[in-house]
Amino acid sequence: PWWREGLPRGRGNGVLLGVLVGLWAYGGVPGWLAVTPLGVYGAFLLWRYVALATTAGLLTLPLLALHAPPGYLGAALGLVALGLWRHKVGLVRIVDGTEARLGSPPP
Questions:
Q1: Can you give the pTM of this predicted structure?
Q2: Tens-digit pLDDT profile for residues 64-73
Q3: How far is it, in rounded angstroms, from Cα 107 to Cα 102?
C-alpha cells in the first residue's frame, strides 16, 4: 500500500528483539533464553529470508523453555504460534520460490 512505501521491511523483528531484551532486562526471562533465539535468527539470515530466520529463531524458544522455570513453555508456544501466523504468507512464498531475499526489492 502507498502508506508503507518508505518504511523498511522486517519491522516486526525489531519489536520481537525489544520484547526479548525488555523481558530479560526486567528479570522476566533468563539471559540465555533471550539471546539464543537471536543467534539462531542471525545464523538463518545467511539465506537472506527474513520469514525463515524469524521462524527458526522462534522455534528455539519452546526448546529452551523446557529448561526454564514453569510457565515459560506456554508463553513460548504462544509466541511461536503468533510468529508462524504472522509469517505464513512469507513462508508459503519461500516454498513457491517467489519470496524476495533480504536486500532485494519486495515482490
A1: 0.70
A2: 888 877 888 8
A3: 12
